[in-house]
Structure formats: structure tokens, C-alpha cells
Amino acid sequence: MSHILSIQQLGKTYASGFEALKNVDLDIRRGEIFALLGPNGAGKTTLISIVCGIVNASAGRVLADGHDIAREFRAAREKIGLVPQELLTDAFESVWATVSFSRGLFGKPRDDAHIEKVLRELSLWDKRHEKIMALSGGMKRRVMIAKALSHEPKILFLDEPTAGVDVELRRDMWAMVRRLRDDGVTIILTTHYIEEAEEMADRIGVIHKGELILVEEKAALMAKLGRKQLTLHLQQPLNEVPQGLNGYTLELADDGHALVYTFDTQTEQTGIGALLRRLNELGVDFKSLQSSESSLEDIFVNLVRSRS
Amino acid sequence: MAASPMHFNIHGVRAIYRFEMARWFRTLLSSIASPVISTSLYFVVFGAAIGSRMGDIGGVPYGAFIIPGLVMLTLLTESISNAAFGIFMPKWSGTIYEVLSAPVSTAEIVIGYVGAAATKSVLLGCLILATARVFVPYGIEHPLWMLAFLVLTAVSFSLFGFIIGIWAESWEKLQIVPLMIVTPLAFLGGSFYSIEMLPGIWREIALFNPVVYLISGFRWSFYGVSDVGVGMSLAMIGIFLALCLGGITWIFRSGYKIKR
Ligand SMILES: Nc1ncnc2c1ncn2[C@@H]1O[C@H](COP(=O)(O)OP(=O)(O)O)[C@@H](O)[C@H]1O
Ligand SMILES: [Mg+2]
């Protein structure tokens, strides 16, 4: 099966001399929801902008559905829809006019029925005659999504789709994304929230300082990343983990004054209840307990460290 | 079902063109009424009031003599400002991302934006000619040549305006070329007088002003009289057009100020 999007050795150095992307290789599977996860400034928007034709690559190449985005830009771009990170809309146009404009721009003949369907799905139908400047921020974002869907793209890019978005739009958007996926559209979204990637994606790629440091199935990645630790500060120090606690991932810390339990947030049963009961039975008393979760920051740091 | 590959994105060109025309009609009052009113004022002042005291120039009554020059004046300024604004605006607001990400070629983008700006200018030119008829009786000796000059000038200067719109990264820069260069050249280009009327050395200097050739050729299409040869006028427009086309090709090839 050929990939819907193939990014090969992509590099970008901005005019300022800043290297925003370093040798990025990434294949996107047809019909998947892919989350590009990374902190601010990692290069997510740069990557998307190159694929969409807004920024020129400095090195490498990109194939969209087999078409080189530079040499066969028409065939490549008509398959791609983009919802940028920032709210960028016209002011004086009506909702209907601006969405119809987008469809034409992408080379598609007029199709009022499709525009109506898109506007209805995004709860914009009642606002179709209103000028964009009269709309709220949330509504404007919906308009931008409608524009991106106006030409029935096969690949949809959502750049930080939920940043500053209200709960309702967020819910609508995820429902829409799932519906699009069911229709065979491939969706690539960027986010710096690990929860968001977790909620939506089939696969996750982690980008850090312009480097794609990892690409994995969500389940596998979450098992790796989504770990929590429970630290029990003991009344009496221990020399070793008691025999009766085999089967728990326990370690001693702080010269035996603390017992650290590592568990997986992905599983239904964390095993904490059973562990505490077992400790009670064994007579291990503790003063206090504290849980910690590996933050996205820790995860990046760990990933970067493990690579070098 | 595989769609046939696109060779020319006619829907895209049409979308840009319509968008630009809609913008114009939305601001009908300022975009159409104001050039018409200001040109009418010129006719009242120079044509009717002062013109009645002036003799004929090359056998043409002064009121009629200034018509081609005034139309050119409006054509130049409106073509430039319209095309410059048309591309500057999306660049400034950021909505240009959509055009850049669309399957439209450079040529198609230019045809859409410049085509719309030139259309507006030609329509305005015709409107001013019709308005002038109210104040001054005049005839057009070579109507087809007149139209050719009108269209060529509108297209050339819309291209020029488009380049300015891309080059400018601030509102000041957007205004500065039209204000500091084009308007003086246009005013000194012989709208209100014949180059023949200038004293000695000034006549030679005036011949370096490209607008002189435009106005002269345009006036010839009306009255059959001109300051410089008609062939020379056409050649000048041709050269200017070629320069602008070359400039735009270079801009898009290099991604100058459009893509990062
Ligand atoms: N036009 C530009 N010129 C120079 N540097 C830029 C430009 N655009 C973005 N950058 C830099 O490139 C890096 C990546 O930016 P970006 O792709 O927007 O990151 P993200 O979307 O992951 O937050 C940032 O450090 C940013 O400052
Ligand atoms: Mg970004």
C-alpha cells in the first residue's frame, strides 16, 4: 500500500539562518489520524506549511498521494486541505461567499449542495449570509474549517485545532474528524497537549527542535509514556522489597525510606488499592504518599536523552 | 473515478477575479464615484472655466484636448492602487495562505488579480469618457486604437501595481511609489499641455517621462494629433509591459517576499 503522504529528508533553514527542520522522514498511512506532538517552536507549523506549499523546503521532498508537491503541485495540492493555527479570515465577505471562493480556488466546479452540507455540519448554515467580521472567534474558526473542507480534500491538516477553542467546538470538531476519517480522509493534526494526541490519534509522531524523534502507534507510545509513579514514604526503612509484594513493579528509594510503585495509566486497574491492602497485611506502614505523572516535558527530555 | 488532471485552473482564476470585483462593488461609492467626481471637477475647472480662455492646441479645443490625458491619469493611479491593494491586503491580513496553498499557478494568480484590477480601470476609463461627454463635445477618430491603448495601459499598470503590492510590507510603502513617482510623472506627462509648448531643454527632459508616450498615443487615437510617434508610444507600453511581466516572473520564481 502506498502512503498517502511521504516526507523524505525534509529540511528547512529560514532566511534568518534558523534551522527549523532537520532531515525529517515521515510516512502517513492512508486514512489514519496522525498527531504531530511537540512543544511550541518544535517545527510543527513549519512542517505543515511546507507540505501545503506556503513555505519552501530547503532540502528533501514530499509526495502527496504519489505527487511531488513541487513538480506536480496541482495534483498534490487539490488533495490537501489546511486549517492554519491562526485565525485568518476575510472581514467583509459573507460566510457563503468565502467558502465558495475556497472551493473555486482549489479548482473545483461550483457545488452548492456540498457547501451546504459542510456549513450545516459546522453549524454555520444559519450564519451563511453574515459577514465574517460579525462572527465570534469560535465561529470564525468554524469558517476556516469549512473553507478547508470546501474542495473535498483527501488529506486534512489541522494545526493546533483546539488551541483557544471552546468545549462545544472542540467536541464538534472531534466528531467531524471521526466522520471524515470514516469517509476515508487522512487527518494530520498538531498539538502540544499529549491528552489531545491520546484522545484522537491512531499514530503519534513526536517532534522536538526540528527533529522527528519518534513515530509510534498510539497504544504502544502511551504504554511507554503514560506512566505514573506512586511514592510511599515509609515509617521504617526497608532493606529490600518485601517478598509478599512480588508481581508489583516496586523499587526502593531514598535509602529504603521510600517505596516507589510504577504503574500504567492506560490499564483499567492500576492496582493501587490491592497494593495498599497488601502493604497493610504485611505491616508496612507509611507516613504519606504522593503520585507523580511524567509530564510532556519529562517525556521529551527522556526521549532526547535516550537518543544521544 | 479519477478526475482528469488540471492544466489550467479556470475555477481558481474565476474565484480570485470574482472576489476582487466583489470587493470593488462593495465599496462602490469610493471606488467608482470618487474618480468620476474628481475628473468631472477637472473638466469644470480646466475644460469649461479656463479652457474657454485658452486657444486650440494642434487644432483641438482645450476642453477636448485634456480628456485623453485625464482618463490616462485616472487609469494609471487606479490601476496601480487597485492591483497593489488587492494583493497587499491578503498578504497583510495573512489570508494569502490560502492562495499559496491552492493549486493555482503564478500565471493564474496574476491573471486573477491583475485581470480584475485592469477590468476595473477600463470600466472606470469608459465611465469617465462618458462623463466627459456631458461637459465637452468630442469625437474618437480611431476607436479600436483607443480601446487598445486603454486596455494595454490598464494591464501594464495593474501589473506594476501588483508588483508594488508584493514588494510593500507596510501601508506607507504601499502608498509611496504611486504618490512620489507615478502621480508627478502623470501630471508632468502632458495631460494638460502639449510637449511642444514646453521651452527648449524641458521638452528633451519630458521625453524621459514614459507617461508622455502613453498620453500622446492615447490622444492620437482621439484626435489624430500627437507629440511623439504612435509607434513609439506602443513600443513604450510594450517595453513597460514586458518589464512588469519579467519582474513578476522573477518574484514568483524566487519566492521573493511571498514564501518563507
Ligand atoms: N519566518 C521565520 N523565520 C525565522 N524563524 C522562524 C520563522 N517561522 C518560524 N520560525 C522558527 O522556527 C521554529 C519552529 O516554528 P514553528 O514551525 O512555528 O513551530 P511550532 O508550530 O511547532 O510551534 C521556531 O523556533 C520559530 O521561531
Ligand atoms: Mg505552530
Automatic annotation (TrEMBL), chain A:
One of its GO terms (molecular function) is ATP hydrolysis activity. The keyword Nucleotide-binding applies. Keywords: ATP-binding, Nucleotide-binding, Transport. Coiled coil: none annotated. InterPro entries: AAA+_ATPase, ABC_transporter-like_ATP-bd, ABC_transporter-like_CS, ABC_transporter_ATP-binding, P-loop_NTPase. Gene3D superfamilies: P-loop containing nucleotide triphosphate hydrolases. Residues 5-234 form the ABC transporter domain. PANTHER family: ABC TRANSPORTER ATP-BINDING PROTEIN (PTHR42711:SF10). This is ABC-2 type transport system ATP-binding protein.
TrEMBL record, chain B:
Its main location: membrane. InterPro entries: ABC-2_transport_permease, ABC2_TM, ABC2_TM_bact-type, ABC_2_transport. One of its GO terms (cellular component) is ATP-binding cassette (ABC) transporter complex. The chain crosses the membrane at residues 28-50, 62-89, 109-132, 144-168, 174-193, 205-222, 228-252. It comes from the Bacteria. It is found in: Cell inner membrane; Membrane. Keywords: Cell membrane, Membrane, Transmembrane, Transmembrane helix, Transport. Pfam families: ABC2_membrane. It is a multi-pass membrane protein. Residues 26-255 form the ABC transmembrane type-2 domain. GO terms for molecular function: ABC-type transporter activity. Belongs to the ABC-2 integral membrane protein family. This is Transport permease protein. It comes from Sinimarinibacterium flocculans.
